[in-house]
Amino acid sequence: MNKPLVQEAMAALQGANAPSHYEPINGGLINYSYCVTTQHNDKIFLQQINQVVFLHPDRIASNLQLIYSALKEKNATHLMARPLSFKNDAWLFCDSKGYFWRAADFLSSKTLHHTTDLSTLQVAVQAFANFTTQLSDLNTDLLYPTLDNFHDLSLRFKQFQQAIGEGDQTRLAETSWLIEALQARIGYVQLYRQMCEAPTDFKKRVMHHDAKLSNLLFDNRGQQVVAVTDLDTTMPGYFFSDLGDMIRSMAASVDENNNHPDAVFILPAAYETIFNCYRHTILNQLTAAESSLLHAAGPLMIYMQTLRFLTDYLQGDHYYQIQRPGQNRERAEHQFALLSSLEDLLEKKYQFSIA
Which domains, from first to last, does the chain contain? Predict the structure, then answer.
């Protein structure tokens, strides 16, 4: 990142001669973020949008305005940081290199990446569930898809099938067992297609689409959520997206970069906490069909992520960054172990099965 570009954005935000200081905010995987301290010691969140991932930054800006306005009507603006406009009253700034920037209030907070504390999990789940609940009156037709077909399981399965036909032969051979196991679970794809064909039973709602612990801002004690963050992917989606992501990321024994599949399993107490808390918070929003299939949320999202990791591995690791050879294969094996563990738990404890 060139320093002048940050300064360009800061000047567009405060004025060319306004003294200020900035520090990078580390830990983000997609965008480049900064904390700007103004001459009055106010703090501002300034972010350059990664246009390789997000092809339409204007869609993000539009969605954030709609979401903030809808939350304001419900007196729930505490759920997100207030967007800030630049000096020309625009919500985006385009620098001299063509990169787009956005700004918001900076919220002093603490970020958590993992916890086994069930009370913390409950607070996290309630934050994501409340976010969707408070936006229940927002017309989803007004929101843009910021990532087209992001949680489209039919598309992900089609891409997987294409990778089988066109992928590296050596990689196809070494993962043949996993390919067969995923093909045998086509029932998840069929369920998704049924949802798409029944809009009355399965409604589009405002979903975060990346509901993991690190996308929440906690107070400095780590006990209360200050705001939901990383809203770039917030757009219309089905009921399983956020709950499934929380189960996938918060109820796993180890994270997806662990290269020992034998160490991967669903933590039963964490699953029960996440499921029950989310269901209790959002129950009045659900249709009867959605409520009856709520246990499908975890398997659907974990299955989809397994497909995506394996597809990328078969096609040469073009999408997900890797730190070592074979990492996307390891990630796929990790997700499949997690899926198998969850399927076993659901069948034995909850008498629930799809695939």
Answer: 3-105 (3.30.200), 118-349 (3.90.1200.10)
